[in-house]
Design goal:
With 325 residues, the protein is an alpha+beta fold. The chain has ten helices and 16 strands. The protein has one domain. 38% of the residues lie in helices and 26% in strands. The strands form five sheets. Strands 15-2-3-10-9-16 form a six-stranded mixed beta sheet, with helices on both faces. A four-stranded antiparallel beta sheet has the order 11-12-14-13. A two-stranded antiparallel ribbon has the order 1-4. Strand 5 and strand 6 form a beta hairpin.
Length: 325
């Protein structure tokens, strides 16, 4: 069963205007984050290694998060991946953070199409406003020294504090809109989020009613604030440690980068605060590995057939391209 922390994020993000699945897979991803308080910008440097097309079926091993195998990508899967990857190289604002639902396609037509449901329309408008200040400064496809396809992107969010305010407001609006489902109101099916208690979910709703933030920028430090009871916090930590110690590669691949980047964890007045401070170079670094996703050649071969521009670069050169000013 997913732990409360991951279920929380998934439940919130899945309700936003997001693609329904990942267009490509990768063997590893590096995500670098840097906040410039003076210019009020948030920079992202993204590096995907061993990029290949996604198969459409998954063979799960029982109830665990471990995956036995993936189906081989079909020609249609490869074509879909090629179209998205080529668009990314052309500047499409398509970003992946580990996997769905941490996936944004800010140039999706859905963001400009009004929705009939008033609450969903409010969320669509908030997502569109959030996207307004996000740009891709540069992007490049490359082949590394091992002959594997990669993608490097540099992204900037201007007016970062305003963008973050909009994101927090959107999360609060989402919670308030769905309070009935969260709390199991009469006539509504209750949404189960991990093992969180009703008391904790009530704290989430109360926090949203007060308009308090969930993500905070403090200079170059990023803070995440989540109401949790001490017992629930213990279960979150247990889930991370057990998954890592048991070598559950799928779960550990999600948790370990955050644990490595974590600089401080506090729990006061019922609220968990996780702080992520940058290293000496000013960048926060998250490095995800996907050991079950082994690069296949079909996507690279199709891109070459279509004469898509692909550079020859070492990973160090690609990393510098993504991170340079």
């Amino acid at each position: 069963m997913p732990t409360p922390l991951r279920s929380l994020v998934a439940a919130l993000l899945a309700a936003l205007v997001l693609p329904s699945c990942l267009a490509f897979r990768y063997e590893g991803e590096e995500v670098y984050v840097r906040h410039d308080a003076e210019r009020d910008t948030l920079e992202l440097a993204l590096l995907y290694r061993g990029v290949h097309a996604s198969g459409t079926e998954v063979d799960w091993t029982g109830e665990s998060l471990e995956i036995e195998s993936y189906a081989k990508a079909t020609p249609g899967d490869v074509d879909s991946a090629a179209r998205i990857v080529e668009a990314i190289a052309g500047g499409r604002r398509y970003f992946v953070f580990y996997d769905w639902p941490f996936l944004l396609d800010l140039d999706s037509p859905k963001l400009s199409e009004p929705l009939e449901d008033p609450d969903e329309e409010v969320m669509r408008q908030a997502a569109a406003e959030f996207a307004d200040n996000i740009r891709v400064d540069r992007a490049r496809l490359f082949v590394d020294d091992d002959g594997k396809l990669g993608i490097a992107q540099h992204v900037t969010m201007t007016n970062a504090r305003l963008g973050l305010e909009r994101l927090n407001a959107g999360l609060n609006r989402l919670l308030l809109t769905n309070r009935g489902a969260l709390l199991g109101a009469e006539g509504e099916g209750k949404v189960e989020i991990g093992d969180l208690s009703r008391a904790t979910l009530e704290q989430w709703v109360a926090r949203a009613e007060r308009g308090e933030p969930w993500i905070v920028l403090d200079g170059g430090t990023i803070e995440v604030h989540v109401p949790l009871s001490p017992a629930e916090l213990a279960r979150v930590v247990e889930g991370m440690v057990v998954a890592t110690a048991a070598e559950n590669r799928e779960a550990a691949g999600f948790y370990v980068p955050f644990l490595r980047a974590l600089t401080e964890l506090t729990h006061q007045d019922g609220v968990l605060v996780a702080r992520f401070a940058p290293k000496g170079d000013g960048w926060l670094a998250f490095e995800f590995e996907r050991p079950n996703w082994e690069a296949q050649p079909e996507l690279l071969e199709l891109l070459r057939e279509r004469d898509v521009e692909i550079s020859a670069m070492s990973l160090e050169q690609a990393r510098a391209f993504a991170r340079e000013q």
